[in-house]
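Researcher: Quick test of sequence recovery. Tokens follow.
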């Protein structure tokens, strides 16, 4: 009996092909620790694409606190600083005030930014610190055991709300971006996602805007929320989690710009 063989397809070289994507040179080529299907890896890539395309690699400093974002310095090849849980924006404020020519961004999850770091986040934005805050909202504490977060939806089951979030007992989910948008120090506030190719393009545009505003010294804080999935915490496959997110989270956390800069001359 002849051995089964798998033929390798051959492709003809085509001249003048347009390159539509390549890994940013400032994204380390290493395996990541995120769960399969998690949106964090896409967010990492987008941030590094923006930094590289803007030519600010040598000026950029990222702040990653505790949680799923804690190992971002293993992947993002820019200067990185770890902050205590919830304190990333306070840390970024200090660095930016000492090194005003640097470009600062924080990379935080909802358990970090919207719970332990609520005060730091609100006061940083209220002061209008000229930094970029990147907020990954998957509605749960991911790394620490799938507990209910301030952003967990009504009825959603977590390890600390096994029968679902009860609003009478546990309060309402926080729309952090909407809360921050009313502050005078907020210059640009947007909520995007990374669950489809179209959504990824919109998120990259939002990140590009946010970093440009900081480079130009525009007046205030830029806040980019990225609604993401958590397949492990939600006990779903990656496909199921993206479908559940689209069917449930976007009704509450509506995607799009929440606060945009005033038009020139106004």
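Model:
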């Amino acid at each position: 009996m002849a051995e089964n063989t798998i033929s390798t397809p051959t492709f003809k070289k085509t001249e003048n092909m347009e390159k539509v994507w390549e890994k940013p040179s400032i994204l380390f080529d290493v395996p990541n620790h995120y769960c399969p299907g998690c949106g964090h890896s896409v967010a990492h890539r987008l941030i590094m694409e923006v930094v590289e395309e803007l030519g600010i690699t040598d000026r950029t400093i990222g702040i990653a606190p505790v949680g799923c974002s804690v190992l971002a310095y293993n992947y993002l090849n820019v200067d990185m600083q770890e902050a205590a849980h919830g304190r990333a924006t306070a840390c970024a404020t200090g660095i930016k005030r000492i090194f005003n020519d640097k470009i600062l961004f924080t990379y935080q999850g909802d358990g970090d930014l919207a719970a332990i770091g609520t005060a730091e986040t609100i006061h940083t934005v209220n002061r209008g610190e000229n930094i970029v805050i990147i907020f990954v909202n998957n509605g749960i504490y991911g790394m620490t055991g799938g507990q209910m977060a301030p952003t967990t939806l009504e009825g959603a089951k977590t390890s600390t709300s096994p029968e679902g979030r009860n609003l009478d007992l546990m309060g309402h989910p926080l729309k952090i971006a909407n809360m921050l948008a009313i502050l005078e120090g907020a210059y640009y506030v947007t909520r995007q996602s990374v669950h489809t190719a179209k959504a990824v393009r919109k998120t990259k545009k939002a990140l590009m805007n946010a970093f440009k505003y900081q480079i130009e010294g525009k007046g205030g804080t830029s806040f980019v929320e990225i609604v993401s999935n958590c397949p492990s915490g939600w006990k779903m496959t990656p496909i199921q989690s993206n479908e559940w997110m689209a069917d449930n989270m976007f009704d509450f956390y509506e995607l799009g710009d929440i606060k945009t800069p005033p038009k020139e001359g106004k």
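Residues 40-255 form a domain with the Rossmann fold fold (CATH 3.40.50.970).
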